[in-house]
Amino acid sequence: MSAVPAPDRSTDARPGTPGTLRVALLGCGVVGSEVARALIEHADDLAARAGAHLDLVGIAVRDTSRPRDGVGTVIPAELLTDDAGALVDSADLVVELMGGIEPARGLIRRAIEGGASVVTANKALLAEHGPELFEAADDAGVDLSFEAAVAGAIPIVRPVRESLAGDQVRRVLGIVNGTTNYVLDQMTTHGAELEDAVKEAQALGYAEADPTADVEGFDAAAKAAILASLAFHTRVRLDQVAREGITAITPADVVAARLTGHVVKLLAIAERTAEGVSVRVHPALVPGDHPLAAVRGAFNAVFVEADGAGPLMFYGQGAGGRPTASAVLGDLVSAARDRLVGGKGPRESAYASLPVLPADAAVTRYQVRLAVADRPGALAQVAGVLADHGVSIDTMRQAPDEPYATDVAEGRAAVLLTTHAAREASLAATVDALQRTDRVHEITSVLRVEGV
Fold first, then answer.
1. pLDDT bucket at 242, cuts 50 / 70 / 90
2. 75 DSSP 8-state letter
3. How many CB atoms lie within 10 A of CB 153?
4. What is the pTM of this model?
5. Which residues are catalytic?
6. Cβ(24)–Cβ(88) under 8 Å?
7. In CATH, 20-152+322-341 is 3.40.50.720
8. Is 48 exposed, middle or buried (0-12, 13-18, 19+ CB in 10 A)?
9. Which CATH number fits domain 362-449: 3.30.70.100, 3.40.50.410, 3.30.70.260, 3.100.10.20?
10. CB of 92 within 8 A of CB of 332?
């Protein structure tokens, strides 16, 4: 374990002098190793941009003896330490790339209270404990930056928080998880089963050995909470985000979507209404002519609608070591500049304190696939149930030979209907009522329609 001397913050990197800022890196995984490599290989360029040398003084890891990419070649092995606390105490700037809640939360608090600015990519931590950490950073007069926490290399945090600060953001639609987008893209373009597409994503390094956080929507929900908090100047907790993953999506869903001119995507959606803020993550049908429909593979994209700026699209690589490291390093340079001039980056803005609406208050459209008795009156009964619940039908088609009807038993007819916009509560009650009618044998699939 290497010893880490404490810095003298009274003399380091004063404005106008070629000073040095000491950087502590917490974590040396895929992203951490790329950040370390860049700090070493591009030291002169980063110094010119930041206004001071960014001296990597240590990398905290759990096991210093474990082999790691680049360590011993580009990254000196003596930088590794298992004493994260001492490393944090020695630094002017702390980069947290450990992930998880603890010990990351405690170490970030320790860094902030010790006067260090912090850069993190930890979306789960920010979604759960962001307000606490932002308040601590504000009290200490230091920066807490997190561009890499949402959509990897895509610059979305800074545009929403700063560039659109004078505008009114109405809606944010995002493909913010590269794993699920890759899986759904494989199902759309190659007809793959979900399980096979997940295995392929794992083989390519897009998905972890345990893909639960991705396919069940936990990762996207944390990012949605952060985006909504920024866009609407309102604290949105992770437990206030309605969440549904992609594990129930079938090839038949993909085929049915194509027949109606849609593509299935996992979306993070945040909307501001007259009643408050609605935030949710779920699979959705996106019209084929919407910009998000063209986002392929493991790429991410965020579509922002604002009163003045109108529609804006942010697109790029949402994950991976080098893309995410790019966002981390951008925050690090900005934090260094702030420190040199004695300034601070943007503070948390939660002045609006809008109510966060329950999931059933969202307004959306449904596309429902169901199997009905193949005899007269079945469609009339279905239409009657929707009318009773105040939900109007946009389109309805009954075609037993359609590709999406292959899982419908003999003697039954496959029906595909799309509703007009209605409250989620009304739509859910409608689906429940349909399941209890004598001529509806099965609700095969229920998907929301977004982006219209």
1. very high
2. B
3. 21
4. 0.90
5. 223
6. yes
7. yes
8. exposed
9. 3.30.70.260
10. no
